[in-house]
Amino acid sequence: MTVTDIAPLGLAAPSRPTTVHLSGEIDIFTTAALRRQLINTLHHSTSVLIIDLSEVTFCDAGGLGVLVGIQHRARWMGITVALTAPRPFMSRLLHITGLDRSLPMMV
């Protein structure tokens, strides 16, 4: 699992959303690092954080838990989190769990 920010931390333009590109597997072995990286990104984010899922190849329940937890923390900080470009398996997973109704999706 890798996380790539669109702009270096601290240099995000306030008028543009902060975008994070995730890739690889999000599972029990990667969720702790992902959580830390996303929390760090929140502290340097604009008012909108977009999480690009286009290169995520696998996601387990722990990965979904990280996304939900980040959304809750972001709300508390006044930041909106939105997901974008999930692969078909990820879209199905979000739909089956009902998270497609609570985690906004950007087209």
From TrEMBL:
SUPFAM superfamilies tied to this protein: SpoIIaa-like
InterPro entries according to UniProt: Anti-sigma_ant, STAS_dom, STAS_dom_sf
PROSITE patterns: STAS
A GO molecular function held by the record: anti-sigma factor antagonist activity
Superkingdom to which the source organism belongs: Bacteria
TM region(s), chain numbering: none
Family note: Belongs to the anti-sigma-factor antagonist family.
Listed name of the protein: Anti-sigma factor antagonist
Taxon lineage: Bacteria, Bacillati, Actinomycetota, Actinomycetes, Streptosporangiales
